[in-house]
Design a protein that fits this description.
Blueprint: H1 2-11, H2 20-23, H3 37-44, H4 48-52, H5 59-68, H6 71-75, H7 80-94, H8 99-102, E1 119-120, E2 123-124
Antiparallel strand pairs: 1-2
């Protein structure tokens, strides 16, 4: 990575992904897997279809919600973790990726407290 940065700096060309094109948000459109916005929110999961379903009846309103950022999602009662995931998924979708390629199930809750060697299988070891 550093070799690429060093080589590009000698030519005067930036190779970072923080360009205006990468930062631009593209509008959301229908896809073969998701003909309606409610289908997309259902596939994304994380209660997006229940909390945002009434706010986005068509693709234009979903695109406006996506362009406004996380504030309207917070007003709808989504947690910051849910908002981050939904925004990430909408960004991937806006760049043309099919929802089946990037949707991930949520992490299951921890079953064992603690991380160190003193706690093994839920029991404290001396």
């Amino acid at each position: 990575m550093f070799a690429a940065v060093r080589a590009s700096s000698s030519r005067g060309v930036r190779t970072f992904a923080s360009t205006a094109q990468a930062a631009a948000k593209l509008p959301l459109r229908a896809h073969a897997e998701t003909p309606m916005p409610a289908d997309l929110l259902t596939k994304i999961g994380r209660n997006a279809d229940k909390k945002l379903g009434d706010k986005v009846p068509d693709w234009k309103s979903l695109s406006e919600l996506y362009l406004k950022g996380t504030k309207p999602m917070g007003d709808a009662g989504m947690t910051p973790r849910e908002r981050r995931y939904v925004m990430w998924a909408l960004e991937r979708y806006s760049h043309g990726d099919a929802p089946s390629t990037f949707i991930r199930p949520p992490k299951p809750p921890k079953k064992i407290r603690g991380w160190g060697p003193r706690v093994q299988n839920g029991k404290r070891v001396k």
